[in-house]
Design a protein that fits this description.
Layout: H1 2-21, H2 26-35, H3 38-53, H4 60-72, E1 75-76, H5 79-83, H6 92-98, E2 100-101, H7 103-116, E3 124-132, E4 138-147, E5 158-162, E6 165-170, E7 177-184, H8 193-203
Parallel strand pairs: 1-2
Antiparallel strand pairs: 3-4, 3-7, 4-5, 5-6
Helix pairs in contact: 2-3, 3-6, 4-7, 6-7
């Protein structure tokens, strides 16, 4: 009898941990509506229904395109205007809850949604680039890169998910990205202070 009780308790705690670990939970929806409004809650519901549930068995390419398009509908606004500081890495929850963010926030949101969809984090890289605007101005920028092969040998093997472009294109076709400064991924490499903080904030679902 004791063994059955222990098994039951073990399964209960495992199930509870899985629910808590899910990207979108009912508890999160309630908190989002309370802190922001019903529209914030609806955005999280849309992620769960239109992306996480709908795309689970889709190909990586379909996931990339759908997630890139959906996340890019969120409005751009600088960290200075949203958080009162020049550089801030918002969690997926803060970004979607507020419905506002900058290039890093789009990158973070896309990364965590794709990871939840089963895309290997080894394929996904936060990529610092120099972006050339239509006016010719060069701007520091971040995009999410997807490696089509583990060790890309050409720009054709790297797909770019960017808030400045709703199409997922190979880096070879993104001539407005004039320079790649650095690629990082704290899940599969060295963790910076920002990445460590982001990881902690994501685990506690910081809104």
């Amino acid at each position: 009898m004791k063994i059955i009780v222990y098994i039951f308790l073990a399964l209960f705690f495992i199930s509870s941990a899985e629910i808590q670990a899910a990207l979108i939970t009912n508890q999160l929806l309630l908190k989002a509506e309370k802190k922001y409004n019903k529209f914030a809650k609806n955005r999280f519901v849309a992620i769960d229904n239109k992306l996480l549930k709908k795309l689970k068995s889709s190909s990586d390419i379909k996931k990339l395109n759908a997630v890139n398009t959906w996340v890019n509908y969120i409005k751009y606004k600088s960290d200075k205007k949203v958080y009162g500081m020049s550089d801030y890495w918002a969690t997926l929850y803060e970004f979607v809850g507020k419905g506002l963010g900058d290039c890093e926030d789009y990158t973070i949101a896309k990364y965590y949604i794709l990871k939840e969809l089963g895309v290997s984090p080894k394929r996904l890289k936060f990529t610092y680039v120099i972006y050339k605007s239509r006016s010719g101005k060069k701007i520091s920028h971040m995009v999410l890169s997807y490696l089509k092969v583990p060790k890309p040998k050409s720009k054709k093997d790297i797909l770019i998910l960017d808030n400045n472009n709703r199409k997922v294109l190979p880096a070879s076709k993104r001539r407005d990205l004039v320079k790649v400064v650095k690629m990082i991924n704290g899940d599969t490499g060295a963790k910076s202070k920002k990445w460590k903080k982001l990881e902690v904030d994501m685990k506690r679902k910081k809104l």
